[in-house]
């Protein structure tokens, strides 16, 4: 069994995060990483819904009263564009879906 390094204080990732989350810079970086994951998930979900319905980006854009370029930016996980809730709501209707947004309490509170 491997020895824990000198100065090891925690017993797992949860303990490490609980310790690090007290640092504002760490909280901001963690939040930004979470936002990127959300953007990737949004991009993939929109693209899959669109493709499952056999629609082009232009067709979805027309139904959502936006442009094909906006749909493209939403579907591209490398583009840091996040649309407004209004655009997302119109996009959901255009794709025959419901838009749900939730705030979920964190399991640990920041100090």
What does it look like?
The longest helix has 29 residues, at 24-52. The mean pLDDT is 87. The relative contact order is 0.12. The protein contains 5 helices and no strands. The protein has helices at 13-20, 24-52, 57-64, 68-75, 85-94. It has 111 residues and is an all-alpha fold. 57% of the residues lie in helices and 0% in strands. It is elongated, with a radius of gyration of 20 Å.
What distinguishing features does this structure have?
single chain; about 110 residues; mainly alpha; elongated
Mean pLDDT: 87
Shape: elongated
Unreliable spans are none
List the helices and strands in order.
HHHHH
Radius of gyration: 20 Å
Give the SSE layout.
Elements (H helix, E strand, L loop, with lengths): L12 H8 L3 H29 L4 H8 L3 H8 L9 H10 L17
Short description:
57% of the residues lie in helices and 0% in strands. It is built from 5 helices and no strands. The chain has helices spanning 13-20, 24-52, 57-64, 68-75, 85-94.
């Amino acid at each position: 069994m491997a020895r824990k390094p000198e100065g090891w204080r925690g017993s797992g990732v949860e303990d490490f995060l609980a310790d690090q989350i007290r640092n504002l810079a760490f909280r901001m970086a963690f939040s930004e990483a979470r936002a990127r994951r959300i953007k990737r998930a949004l991009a993939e979900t929109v693209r899959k819904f669109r493709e499952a319905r056999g629609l082009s980006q232009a067709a979805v854009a027309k139904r959502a009263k936006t442009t094909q370029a906006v749909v493209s930016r939403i579907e591209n996980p490398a583009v840091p564009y996040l649309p407004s809730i209004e655009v997302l709501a119109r996009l959901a209707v255009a794709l025959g879906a419901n838009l749900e947004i939730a705030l979920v309490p964190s399991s640990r509170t920041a100090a």
